[in-house]
Each structure stands twice: as structure tokens, then as C-alpha cells.
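Hello again, I could really use a second opinion on something today. I owe you a coffee for this, so here goes:
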Amino acid sequence: GKEETISSEGLKFKLFKDATAKPLPAISASKIQNNKGEKFEVYDPCDLWLHDQYVGSWASDQGAVMLLEMTIPAPTDLERVFQNLVFKEAYDNWKKDLKPEWNDNTVHEWLKLCLKGKLKDGAGEQITKDIPKKNKIVRYHSNDSFDDFYRQVYLAECADRPGERYVLIYELPRDTDVEKSSKTVLQSLQSLAFFPPKKTDDKSKQMT
């Protein structure tokens, strides 16, 4: 597959053949009204949370991959105002005060929220076959039951960049050669390389 370089994150890896960018849809607000007739915009906290950590996503007939940087724990202690929705300002304030402590438990909670609860319990398994020594890549198993595709989820860390965690979620169509697709995923993980990021503003992230 072709190689994708993301300078702002300082990483590059191979995608599926003929993959093109498929950005996340823009965040949409819901409008609510109080008993005085005042209108407010509220958001799904998971949407805000996902967009904040989103790096990019790409897809082809062979499959799709989404890349996220794990920086914000699952927003479980965030005040909800209506039907599990939040004010953007409350979310931003919550995010500003965060001092995340990452451990097996918080990583698991993060992955569970990202996969909408479809994560098998238990520790992940480390992938070592031809993975560069500096990189630690762990596979977590999702118990998806989608009719048309299944997922492979990986957490990647690099010894040169302590404290940084990236999540790669591959979606493989069920009607393709699964063995071949899985081999492509392994090649993608083997190709993952980290370099000093060229930090730019957030506009460099893929967005619609």
C-alpha cells in the first residue's frame, strides 16, 4: 500500500492500496430550550472527545484505517445537562483541568468508549513479528458483530516518544480475503515509523 506521512504527529505508515482520505463528519450540535424559552446548543461528549484525538482516516476497497492519539481519558465524570449531552464550554473546562494518569484500566476504558463498548476484557497481546524494536504494538480484541466488516485494534507506543500513545483501528470487509487483508494490516504496523513532529496548528488535521 501507499505510505502516509503525518508531519504534525511525526509518524508515517503504510495504508491499504488505493486508500484515500475519509475524514470524520463534522460535529453536530443539538438544540434544547429551557422553560424560559432560552435556546442552548448541546453536544454528545463522545463526539467532542473523539474529534479532539482524531488524526486521520483512510479507506479503499481493501479496508479502512483510523488513526487517533490517546490524550484524553473517557469523559465519565463530565456533567451532563440533557439526555447524556453536554455544553461545549463545560467539556472544554473539564478538558483544561485534566491530569490524565494512564494505566491498564484507563487505557481499557478509553478503548471501550472508542469502540462503543465492543471490547473484550483482558490485557491486549503484543505484536512482535518484524516490528521495529523501539515500537511497542499491542492488539486488543473487539467483539464486534458487524455484518459487513470486522475490526482489528492496536495501541502503538515508541521508546523515543515516552508518554505518547496512538491507536490504529483497521476495518476489514468480510467479503474480502481475510488472510490477505490481515497480512496488509501487519505490513502497515511493521511500517509504522516515528520521527520528530513538526507541530502546526490543529487545522492540519483531517476535517470536513
Summary: Helices lie at 45-53, 88-96, 104-114, 178-191. The longest helix spans residues 178-191. The chain has a mean pLDDT of 89.
